Amino acid sequence: MSVIHSVGLVTGLLALIVVLCAAVTWVEKKVPHKEFDERQKIVQGKAYALAFNVGLLYFMVITIWQMLQAEAGKAFPEMYLLLFLGLWMQMLLFNTYCILNGAGLPLSEKSSWAIGTSLIFAGYYFLKYFGFRDELNRSGFQLIPLMMGVGFSYLALLYGIQMLRERKE
Amino acid sequence: MGKNYAMKQARAEKGLSQQELADRLGVSRQTINAIEKGDYNPTIKLCIGICRVLGLTLNDLFWDETE
């Protein structure tokens, strides 16, 4: 790619980001402000700490494991896939903790919206994964849509279970 | 921290559900439930808000008899 093309690409991306930020700001001003209450913010803080600490431990483990595998001359999965797996695990851990402690949504949201949204995303990623199935060439990258679909299905199920638990209270 | 029976009773006497009380205070229903179960210690600001809605004092609702 030539320098001019690169500059054009970067400029275009920056312009897109600016437009998106302006649009989000405009929408937020029109839509009633939704916030988490004091207890929910405390729960989220604990969830962030849990996800961060577990993620840190995971990254240390896979780094050491890869070093040992490399010294032994053995093959190991691509680092980008392992890193994505770690981020995915952190996302699920954070959301699990928040949902189970009643901090999964801001005040004016309903759990049913979260379930519907999670299922839509799950459906999209499952279709994307199976749509590419014929073109799979054992690339770990193709597993990412499947992992995202599984993750969103899990979150939808968790929201549903939490809704049933709260109805009994 | 024990259960807050005083708050639960006061809320029931006012005929408010946990959701209705939460809406008046601008917090989630889960937070009201956590306060009544003794799982969460609210800030003084929220305590005062609860007292105002239920028409009682801080001592009536949040005094810990075990101390």
Provide a descriptive summary of the structure in words.
Chain A is mainly α. Chain A has helices spanning 3-30, 38-71, 79-100, 111-131, 143-168. Chain A is globular and about 55 Å long. Chain A starts with a helix and ends with a helix. With 67 residues, chain B is mainly α. Chain B has five helices and no strands. In chain B, α2 (18-25) packs across α3 (29-37). The chains are: A mainly alpha (169), B mainly alpha (67). Chain A binds chain B through residues 36-40, 101-103, 107, 166, 169, and chain B through 26-31, 33-34, 40, 42-43, 46.
Primary descriptors:
heterodimer, A: 169 residues, mainly alpha, 5 helices, B: 67 residues, 63% helix, 0% strand
Q: Measure the end-to-end span of chain A.
A: 61 Å
In terms of per-residue confidence, which ranges of chain B show pLDDT below 50 for 5 or more consecutive residues?
Answer: none
Number of helices of chain B: 5
Strand pairing plus helix content of chain B: what structural class?
mainly alpha
How much β-strand is present in the residues of chain A?
under 5%
The major pleated sheet of chain B works out as: none
Q: Write down how many β-strands of chain B occur, each being a DSSP E stretch of 2 or more residues.
A: 0
Shape of chain A: globular
N-to-C span of chain B: 11 Å
Gyration radius over CA of chain B: 11 Å
- The proportion of strand residues of chain B reads under 5%
What's a quick, concise take on this entry?
Chain A has about 170 residues and is mainly α. Chain A has helices at about 5-30, 40-70, 80-100, 110-130, 145-169.
